[in-house]
Amino acid sequence: MNNRLISIVILLGLVFIGLSQSLYIVNERERAVLLRFGEIVAPDIAPGLHVKAPFIDKVRIFDGRLQALEVPQARFLTLEQKAVIVDAYIKWQIKDVQRFYKATNGDLFRVKQLLTARADSRLRNSFGGLTLNEVVSGRREEMMQSITDNLNMVALDELGVVVRDVRVKKIDLPEDVSDSVFRRMASEREKEAQEYRSKGKEMGKAIRANADRERRVVLAEAYRKAEIMRGEGDAESAAIYAEAYEKDPEFYSFYRSLQAYKSSFNSRSDVLLLEPSSDFFKYLKKSTGASSTASDS
Fold first, then answer.
1. Domain boundary residue among 144, 173, 202?
2. Surface-to-core class of residue 40, CB atoms within 10 Å of its CB (0-12 exposed, 13-18 middle, 19+ buried)
3. pTM (two decimals)
């Protein structure tokens, strides 16, 4: 009985081993090839459950998703022979899994070596044909697209992978160049600042001159209006005085004389040297007003 149980367990174990060696799964994120004695018999296996000959066939599965490859920092020279330190990366993906396996034997390290070497060569050539300003801003996008297209053709033909994108993460200047560039930039900014200051002073002078001119115009106009109003007031006052004088000339003359006396004898120290017959004392010599004047005449 025990021997029969052991035989069943051994049989089940062999069946399990046989099935595990015969069945395999490829999911949607993977690319796979089937090998028989080292030769490719199925170059691009579709996703799903598959059967293979146990102990004879071998399956190599690779990541079929988009992958990122960091390109080591490198020192390149621009068109004007200025050194820059470039840090870039590559986005790549397996396209032709059969060619990929034949070119690299499935070794991802070799893929990265080959892509890095080819990317470095193309970056060096591209940077050498552009100025520093074009690299930083002017034609950088155009340069990256050209490198991507060129590297993609070579990678697809040689390695069976497609290069989706090549991007520069950072561009630095060497320390020996950074100081001189910084000084030049500081000098340019100082020159620009001086130009802005000069323009500001010139505009300030123009604004102040315009404000002074407007001030003089406003004051002149106000003075003109004030003089007109003062003249109109004086005319109206004179008209009122004339009208009052015409109603009672004698009273008006008497009132004006009193005002003159008041102004002349404002303090005890005031002294006037006049002849007694002067008209100034006309009303001081009379005790009556109009009747006395009429009788004298």
1. 173
2. middle
3. 0.52
